[in-house]
Specification:
Blueprint: H1 2-12, H2 25-50, E1 61-66, E2 69-74, H3 80-96, H4 101-110, H5 117-134
Antiparallel strand pairs: 1-2
Length: 161
């Protein structure tokens, strides 16, 4: 009974928020997700006050930072055609520009808008598979032996040449 009263009293108390510097990565992620959901809900509620119902405003993305932590939240769904085209372009750039996987991996770690390395690898496998279906490659093992007659003398006999 004492524990029940203690828990009820504890629930009634205001929740104290911790500084972002003391939070773990999972707690930071949860805060960012909940904050983003709250912004989206408020955006949906406020659109009727500021825009006509036929206008249909869309929240695409937001950017914000808390101390040294920067966040970018995308609300819009990604277009698979554009994503495929972007991944194929990166594959082509890697091949033509002699960019190694490690170099691209380092670059993709810095720039959040670049496709991830695993996505590029998967796209490269699909491209290779499509080319293999379109252009069949056959390997023929031909063992050739020299057809030289050891008795025959060479036409050029000068040592200086």
């Amino acid at each position: 009974l004492k524990k029940v009263h203690y828990n009820r009293k504890r629930l009634k108390q205001a929740r104290t928020l911790k500084s972002v510097e003391t939070l773990s990565n999972s707690a930071l992620t949860k805060h960012a997700i909940n904050f983003s959901k709250a912004i989206y809900t408020n955006f949906q509620a406020c659109t009727n006050q500021f825009y006509h119902s036929n206008d249909k405003p869309v929240l695409e993305s937001i950017r914000y930072s808390v101390k040294r932590y920067a966040y970018k939240v995308n609300y819009s769904a990604k277009d698979p055609k554009k994503l495929k085209q972007k991944e194929e372009s990166v594959c082509r750039i890697q091949d033509e520009g002699y960019i190694s996987r490690d170099t691209y991996s380092n670059l993709a770690a810095i720039e959040h808008h670049l496709p991830r390395v695993w996505a590029i690898s998967e796209r490269r496998k699909q491209i290779t598979q499509n080319i293999a279906e379109l252009v069949p490659i056959s390997i023929i093992d031909i063992q050739m032996q020299a057809q030289v007659d050891p008795i025959e003398e060479p036409d050029i006999t000068e040592i200086d040449i």
